[in-house]
Amino acid sequence: CRRAGIRVEPVCINHSERHFSVPKPADRPRDEDGKVIDVIRFGLAAVKNVGSGAIEAIVDARRDAGGSFASPVEFFDNVDYKRANKRVIENLVKAGALDFSGLSRASLFEGLEAACALGARRQEDLAAGQMGLFGVATGAKAPDFRFPSVPEWPFSRRLFFEREVLGLYLTGHPMQAHDKDVLRYATTSVGGLAEAQDGEEVRVMGLIVESRTIRTRRGDKMAFVRLEDA
């Protein structure tokens, strides 16, 4: 997509559909010359453990909120927890689906349990008619919920969670922290191996994302290692 000049926007509870989608031209960003940028928006179904019921709950709550959530609190107050449970919302936070709020993912994750509990209680009160009764009688407003102020996750941890729930790194790659080392020590990239000559000695740098050790028939140890670069 990068090579083709297409921007891939992360999953978002305000804008994502069930599957990957292309926003209407009016909803897409523009470049410096005012030209509409081609965009693909990540779908909610791409997030681990976010099934059909949870997606329907998010879309229904979004519609009830007027088409988009003004804040994460509005999302927590409206989403149906019977269809979108705490684990689903945790994965949405890890994927960056609530980044529109400007709050850090660490802050959202830290306050998630309390926000879910308060949202569920408000829904129960509303269903019982208590909120309406007290609102009319006293003019009282439901107390605002504040997410805790905590440091944002380190870049590497944020990327680790993205890979955990999306199957890939979306907003960056851990190897970005080692760009200078790659330039100094690597003779080629993983993608460039196909162009290397037969028998040529090469040096690549990357992350070990998978390793498996076995015993050969002769009893020797042998390892299979999967290496990934940016």
Summarize this entry quickly:
It is built from seven helices and four strands. With 230 residues, the protein is of the alpha+beta class. The radius of gyration is 23 Å and the shape is globular.
Describe this structure in words.
- Residues 136-141 have low confidence and may be disordered.
- The two termini are 15 Å apart.
- The strands form 2 sheets. Strands 1-2 form a two-stranded parallel ribbon. A two-stranded antiparallel sheet has the order 3-4.
- The protein has helices spanning 52-64, 72-78, 86-95, 105-127, 130-138, 155-166, 179-185; strands spanning 7-9, 39-41, 207-215, 221-228.
- Strand 3 and strand 4 form a beta hairpin.
- The longest helix is centred in the middle third of the chain and has 23 residues, at 105-127.
- It is of the alpha+beta class and 230 residues long.
User: Please, what is the average pLDDT?
Assistant: 89
Distance N to C terminus: 15 Å
Helix count from the secondary structure assignment:
7
Radius of gyration: 23 Å
Poorly predicted runs are: 136-141
| Major sheet strand order | 1-2
How would you classify the quaternary structure? Answer: single chain
DSSP strand content: 5-15%
Structural class computed from helices and strand pairing = alpha+beta
The global form is globular
Count of extended strands: 4
H/E element string? EEHHHHHHHEE
Largest beta-sheet characterization: 2 strands, parallel
The helix content is 25-40%
